Amino acid sequence: MKLKLRIVVLFLISVFTVAAQRNVILIIADDLGSDYCGFYENHLDTVAMPNIEKLLTNGVRFRYAWSNPVCSPTRAGILTGQYSFRTGVGDAIGGGGGELDTAELTIPRLLNIYSPGGIETANIGKWHLQQPAPSNYLFPNLMGYNHFEGGFTGAVSDYYNWTKVTNGVVSTCTNYATTETTNNAIEWIKNVPSGKPFFLWLAYNAPHSPFHLPPAGLYSDTTLSGSAADIAAYPQKYFKASVEALDHEIGR
Questions:
Q1: Catalytic residue among 128, 147, 208, 248
Q2: 0.70 exceeded by the pTM?
Q3: Which of the chain's termini has less CB crowding within 10 Å, N or C?
């Protein structure tokens, strides 16, 4: 473990010596596969994602990549750098999967080892690595994040009426979840002390169900009414509208 830790710390030191890489935003969508991304060869349908596609012009598109088919193991794997099964999180929390051990070495903990107090860290958006019990709501902070703000469970009950946890404090949010997550991320970044590097884990619920009509201006299909009957009849259209809204908010 000590040897592995030294290797990773040395890697982080090399990364953070490059000025352009001092700030990192890791954006995670929920239940979005490459089959809806027109910039992948295996797409079956497409959604307009101009802002995400802009990232390709100065970025890297991974053509050989893999993730778990459910969210909790994927998040556990990214957060710890391990194969997800080694963390004990083999399924969605609440669906039979084990919870992430709070003793795990995580990205924010590693950054704090590299530079104690020198890097601001936040998880904004979905967590879904432990059960949503009041005694667990501070776990993101205990696992290394300076700031946590978002949904603790696997899915919001309603994109316009959902439970939000902010550093252990529970509240009810009636703002569209994708927009609220973006607002929180922008506000947090603005408040990072000038010149201080940051790591932001930005985890959207979208386009995970339930499907709801996004606010006007965030989607293009003008035929959608937003009624329960219409959503039940055309779930794919609402899924695509959710992805469009996600792209729009990422653009902000």
A1: 128
A2: yes
A3: N
